[in-house]
Amino acid sequence: MSQCLYCHQRKGKRSCPALGGLICSQCCGEHRLTRISCPPDCAYLETGSDYQQKRLGEQFAPVRRELYRQLSMAGGEKAAALFNLIEVVTFGYFHDRRDGQDAEVIAAIQALRRTLSPLHVPSAPMPVFAERLKKEYDTFARQNPKQIADLGSAPEILDRALTLIAEFSGQDFQSRRFLNGMIGYVKTFHPEIAEHLTKQQEAGRIVLPGQLTPPAQEPSHVHGPECHLHHH
Predict the structure, then answer these.
(1) Whole domain around residue 96: which residue ranges?
(2) Quick one: pLDDT at residue 219?
């Protein structure tokens, strides 16, 4: 039989233009755009990424719900609003970027945490997404100073967020598991918010969590302070 050119174990059933031969569906699904440099016109990209996002979005939902529960206990609505802002900005920036990686999100949150530390000393220029996240935080905090975690509590909240993202992302240096899970979550459970954020991004407008707190609940969602995408 024709072996998969990636794992050399299972039977290759799909033509892979990047590998120049056949690949099994499992390797195609797990490694496309991360360990395999797929050309943009590959027939399996669009349907595969949509399916993968939906599947990971369903896996991310309970993890996300638990994080919001922890954040709400630790810092109330302000803590939830901070992670909500991170999700909104991340979705707006990465929802149509196939080359985005979880490492970019982690680096941006780490950079934001450093700038909110009283001991912060400005260093080298921040990466593009880190600059975007910092700008959105500053804008929201300036306009709604009593609604989001500030210098006193933000570092702890950001540490909790970093732990969750790193755990969900896994060990692969080029992982997109968190991005796909979070984007898939929004598209699956909150299509109206996904559409709204996409339009805002196209218009070049700043997105703020206060605009995006829908009353609807996702399946099996326990309504609570976590609700923004909602706060879910």
Answers:
(1) 49-211
(2) 39
